[in-house]
Design brief:
With 213 residues, the protein is mainly alpha-helical. The chain is built from eight helices and two strands. Strands 1-2 form a two-stranded antiparallel ribbon. The relative contact order is 0.19.
Length: 213
């Protein structure tokens, strides 16, 4: 698709903005609670660490077939049964490093992901948890994770600015709009408000996407 260059730039920039935020966290802030039940900031970032990790891991698994999912249909699943597994993987990542080293761990994983972006064509079909998908399409699903969880981080540490890349926000909004069973409500014209509602952070009548329940 024609927006793959924009996707690449958005991933590069949004992951850099997150890293800058992590480098500014004080020791006590890593243990602050988040709006995700049972997760501290450290658990949340350990989960976010999987974004660059899976970019590298899945990109290494190219497949000789047509894609069966894209940036939108990738999310056609019920998120409730997946919850315990997501938490378990986050805890495993958390156990593999420490709050003092997490920013550096993320920086190293990010550099490997950016190297992968240079080595693998974004049109390449790769394996993913939900089936074969083009690499560029998979990157958009990772932007959904980065943006939604950056908002979680902002909500946890409201006094700390967590910046969002403009193109990343646009791509996430387009994806979430594609998942709605009805037009985007006029009351959610603000993109951030819409992302918060569509990903289940804020309850809004008629906005239900099973992957984010």
């Amino acid at each position: 698709m024609q927006d793959y260059a924009i996707i690449k730039q958005a991933f590069t920039h949004q992951s850099a903005l997150l890293l800058d935020t992590l480098n500014r966290l004080e020791t006590a802030e890593w243990e602050a609670p988040t709006r995700l039940e049972g997760w501290t900031v450290y658990t949340l970032v350990a989960h976010m660490l999987r974004v660059p990790q899976t970019v590298v891991g899945y990109a290494a698994q190219t497949v000789d077939s047509e894609p069966v999912v894209d940036r939108i249909t990738y999310w056609n699943f019920d998120g409730r049964p997946a919850g315990p597994g997501i938490t378990e993987r986050a805890l495993q990542n958390a156990a593999a490093t420490t709050p003092e080293n997490m920013a550096q761990t993320y920086a190293e994983a990010r550099l490997k992901a950016l190297h992968t972006l240079e080595m693998v064509e974004l049109t390449t079909v790769i394996s993913s948890f939900h089936g074969p998908i083009r690499f560029g399409e998979y990157l958009v699903t990772r932007l959904v994770e980065l943006v939604a969880h950056s908002l979680d981080l902002q909500a946890s540490l409201s006094y700390l600015k967590v910046p969002l890349d403009e193109n990343a926000v646009k791509l996430v909004v387009q994806t979430l709009e594609g998942l709605l069973k009805q037009p985007r409500p006029a009351s959610l014209s603000n993109d951030i408000d819409f992302i918060e509602a569509a990903t289940g952070r804020v309850r809004r009548e008629g906005i239900v996407i099973p992957a984010f329940t």
